[in-house]
Amino acid sequence: xxxxxxxxxxxxxxxxxxxxxxxxxxxxxxxxxxxxxxxxxxxxxxxxxxxxxxxxxxxxxxxxxxxxxxxxxxxxxxxxxxxxxxxxxxxxxxxxxxxxxxxxxxxxxxxxxxxxxxxxxxxxxxxxxxxxxxxxxxxxxxxxxxxxxxxxxxxxxxxxxxxxxxxxxxxxxxxxxxxxxxxxxxxxxxxxxxxxxxxxxxxxxxxxxxxxxxxxxxxxxxxxxxxxxxxxxxxxxxxxxxxxxxxxxxxxxxxxxxxxxxxxxxxxxxxxxxxxxxx
Amino acid sequence: xxxxxxxxxxxxxxxxxxxxxxxxxxxxxxxxxxxxxxxxxxxxxxxxxxxxxxxxxxxxxxxxxxxxxxxxxxxxxxxxxxxxxxxxxxxxxxxxxxxxxxxxxxxxxxxxxxxxxxxxxxxxxxxxxxxxxxxxxxxxxxxxxxxxxxxxxxxxxxxxxxxxxxxxxxxxxxxxxxxxxxxxxxxxxxxxxxxxxxxxxxxxxxxxxxxxxxxxxxxx
Lengths: 279, 220
Known about the structure:
The structure holds two protein chains of two kinds.
Chain A: E1 2-14, E2 17-30, E3 34-38, H1 45-53, E4 60-65, E5 68-69, E6 77-80, H2 92-96, H3 98-102, H4 107-120, H5 136-148, E7 154-158, H6 166-183, E8 187-191, H7 194-200, E9 203-207, E10 214-219, H8 231-255
Parallel strand pairs in A: 3-8, 3-9, 6-7, 7-8
Antiparallel strand pairs in A: 1-2, 1-4, 4-5, 9-10
Chain B: H1 4-15, H2 18-51, H3 53-67, H4 71-82, H5 86-110, H6 114-122, H7 127-138, H8 140-164, H9 171-180, H10 184-218
Helix pairs in contact in B: 1-10, 2-3, 2-5, 2-8, 2-9, 3-5, 4-5, 5-8, 6-7, 8-9, 8-10, 9-10
């Protein structure tokens, strides 16, 4: 399985004005890879996820899955959204078996498979709970389970942990890595958090402020399990952060004040700082 | 002005009087039947209007216009169709309360959050399956809002209908009778009972329903 983006561009019109969200983005997601897409807020990261998922169409270039252009959503490309987007009228079981039900699987089979994946995300005790009874982290576990139960070719994750507290986030990151290794899935993970990206990914793709363009690529060759305090990771984080700060300055300039300047490397970053969570 | 104890005394007398209870039973039966029609027609047409944009553009305006006519203003129209009968009162309830259910149902269908639709579509929900398994359940909070308002509208419509169709046994007929005799304390006792029923059903059924739906849908 290979997902290829060829010079993908996306423009929106908003209140009559044209907005260029993405410009000439080319990238490849290979089988079993864990790729993080990193960039400041409003750089079109979510748009890129929507384009791969087939929820939106590019205005230029194309998205290819195994050589075939994407024409719409499909269960080979499932999304875990920032807000879990669970169905409140269904239990955990109902949510996880939803895709199988749409695919016409018989009830006994789909329940058995749903159970398996609910256990995989450690929610065995909450099979019959409703989403409003779950914490934010538990909702994301359900969202991951309902995607994985469909055996997608790629799991597209749109800042899935950014609304969670630090401990829950760290825990879910580790569990996601375990699932990725165990099930040999492919993950395309969007985040604005440098530390998260370097802890998780094989490759980090940095995207610039609007219009979103690929700025740099970083290979993270540090073996897993990784420690957040690994000096090799810290080195990469410093490099990425330096580059990212230029982009953040651009965004701030656009949003706040054209006079705004951030002296390059003028910000001292202590090594224990939660890199990027402030973005 | 009659004293509160006089009025409450009459309320007690009414509630133990078979003639009164018969009238009350008739009114409640009419309300139940009328409301059942309101729910069926309102949700049915609302779903259709919500689903097909073109129909909504054509008939949605009509629904809003109908909704702007007070139930009491429908009574002469209903009398013209059904005469001074039970049917007239039912029609008044239906005309007075269906519009709000229709409008809120179609608005609910339209207002399903994009995130819900995106999640559904990526998991393979399409067309009719998506509509029945995702869009309709997602619209339930708005539909419930409509049903609650329709209860209040229907209750008013019932009274308006019964007051004007005095040949049908019900609360309206009793109100007319005591009003003609100028029996103010009796009149006040009736109105107290009518208000009590309206508020109790709203509080016991609809407010609870609305709250449980809100908790479930909005904190998901």
